[in-house]
Amino acid sequence: MEFLTPGSGLIFWQFVIFVGLFFLLKALAWKPILSSLKERENSIEEALSTAEKARAEMARLKSDNEKLLKEAREERDRILREAREVAARMKDEAQLDAKKAADKIVEDARAAINIEKQAALKEVKIQVATFSLQIAEKLLKKNLAGDKEQKELVENFIKDAKLN
């Protein structure tokens, strides 16, 4: 039962040792412990402020990055728009040039066809005239085979000449 109810001498010596240990710790350990706690508190505050600065810097960098991405997208869209416009202009010019070239080819073909047509008509006229002369020559030779027919033809020409 002694363990449950300590004696008064034991309590006194425990109190004396506690007070002595308290003053010894206060004199020797309390200041270093408080200074190390203060240093730890300062380092934690510095780490928090550094983290806050880093967070703010990251937010600023993210904002700048988003701004640059937006500008890059706008520049890309502008370049694509200009490229489409140039391509459309080039396509229109190429179509116009092709149409002009086709029109010129058609006009040249029409001119060549007209020239060939005129040449063919001229050739036909020449052949018709040649055939007509040949036929007339053969008829005259046949009709004027004798002197009597020749005299009748001359008399007919004279009569026609007098009437006119």
Automatic annotation (TrEMBL):
Segments crossing the lipid bilayer: 12-30
Localization annotation: Cell membrane; Endomembrane system
Gene giving rise to this polypeptide: atpF
Quaternary structure and interacting proteins, as annotated: F-type ATPases have 2 components, F(1) - the catalytic core - and F(0) - the membrane proton channel. F(1) has five subunits: alpha(3), beta(3), gamma(1), delta(1), epsilon(1). F(0) has four main subunits: a(1), b(2) and c(10-14). The alpha and beta chains form an alternating ring which encloses part of the gamma chain. F(1) is attached to F(0) by a central stalk formed by the gamma and epsilon chains, while a peripheral stalk is formed by the delta and b chains.
Protein name, as recorded: ATP synthase subunit b
Stretches assigned to coiled coil: 34-89
Family: Belongs to the ATPase B chain family.
Job of this protein: Component of the F(0) channel, it forms part of the peripheral stalk, linking F(1) to F(0). The b'-subunit is a diverged and duplicated form of b found in plants and photosynthetic bacteria. F(1)F(0) ATP synthase produces ATP from ADP in the presence of a proton or sodium gradient. F-type ATPases consist of two structural domains, F(1) containing the extramembraneous catalytic core and F(0) containing the membrane proton channel, linked together by a central stalk and a peripheral stalk. During catalysis, ATP synthesis in the catalytic domain of F(1) is coupled via a rotary mechanism of the central stalk subunits to proton translocation.
InterPro entries: ATP_synth_B-like_membr_sf, ATP_synth_b/b'su_bac/chlpt, ATP_synth_F0_bsu_bac, ATP_synthase_B_chain
Pfam families: ATP-synt_B
Hydrolase among keywords: yes
GO terms for MF: hydrolase activity; proton-transporting ATP synthase activity, rotational mechanism; proton-transporting ATPase activity, rotational mechanism
